[in-house]
Automatic annotation (TrEMBL):
Sequence ranges assigned to domain RimM N-terminal in this UniProt record: 12-89
Taxonomic lineage from the root: Bacteria, Bacillati, Actinomycetota, Actinomycetes, Propionibacteriales
Protein name: Ribosome maturation factor RimM
HAMAP family: Ribosome_mat_RimM (MF_00014)
Coiled coil start-end: none
Gene Ontology CC terms: cytoplasm; ribosome
Matches recorded under Pfam families: PRC_RimM, RimM
Summary of the function given for this chain in its UniProt record: An accessory protein needed during the final step in the assembly of 30S ribosomal subunit, possibly for assembly of the head region. Essential for efficient processing of 16S rRNA. May be needed both before and after RbfA during the maturation of 16S rRNA. It has affinity for free ribosomal 30S subunits but not for 70S ribosomes.
Length: 177
């Protein structure tokens, strides 16, 4: 749990296998900003509320993020952490690194509007993968997935509480209805 109301808990990575014999770990980033979250001195903890760790160093090697954690000195200690989900307490008002990026917490709950401004539902979840998807609960009660790209979601205004979809047939309804 976050330390206080001014922070939010963010999943930042999943520990994979050990790399080498000196305690270095492979980490699957679960954040769009791994270089920001795995800087030396960053304080992380296991999602299950267990162990707290400090990042001693990180680097990219052959497309993989390798992380050294303080107190993890050998391969055996690294292997014991395999599968652990790491979280960080992040200031609630910390902006993303890029101006046109959004935190999941900024998107979930937004009213979804059609191109003409008609309310059409709410964002209930953001699914991450090769393509980020907005999971939308429509006003008709259906759940739809919309790729989160500017061509389909041209306007996002978390301060005003909405996002607007492009005028593209089939985004929120079945075309054969």
């Amino acid at each position: 749990m976050p330390e206080d109301q001014s922070t939010v808990e963010v999943r930042v990575g999943r520990i994979g296998r050990a790399h080498g014999i000196r305690g270095e770990l492979t980490v699957e980033p679960l954040t769009d900003e791994p270089d920001r979250r795995f800087t030396p001195g960053a304080e992380l903890r296991a999602e299950d509320g267990g162990r707290r760790v400090a990042v001693a160093g990180s680097r990219w090697h052959s497309g993989r993020l390798l992380v050294r954690l303080a107190g993890v000195e050998d391969r055996n200690a690294a292997e014991e952490l395999r599968g652990t989900i790491l979280v960080a307490d992040v200031p609630a008002d910390e902006p993303p690194a890029e101006a046109d990026e959004y935190w999941d917490r900024d998107l979930v709950g937004l009213e979804v509007r059609l191109a003409d401004g008609t309310p059409a539902g709410r964002v209930t979840r953001v699914q991450h993968g090769a393509q980020d998807l907005l999971e939308i609960r429509t006003t008709a009660g259906a759940t739809r997935l919309v790729p989160f790209v500017t061509a389909l979601v041209p306007e996002v205004d978390p301060a005003a509480g909405f996002c607007r979809l492009a005028d593209v047939a089939g985004l929120l309804e079945d075309l054969d209805d």
